[in-house]
Amino acid sequence: MSRDSRELDSGLLVTGIVYGVIVGGITALLTLPKSGLALRREVQERVELAIPRDPVADSIAEGKAAARRRLEATK
User: Fold this and answer.
1) Which of the four pLDDT bands, split at 50, 70 and 90, describes residue 4?
2) Where are the domains positioned within the chain?
């Protein structure tokens, strides 16, 4: 294999990758079942469900909220 042939092959490879990324991106955008905003919301909800909740932190937050309500009620 000559040097010119190797350079040509690497150039074709890079060009093929670029075209593949462009065509794949366009195809993904055209075939999405939801709008971008709806998709981001769904992903965010799934991430929140996947992260385990900390019961101690939840209890502390509830206690703080109750203390604030009590302070407001006494004013």
Assistant:
1) low
2) 3-74
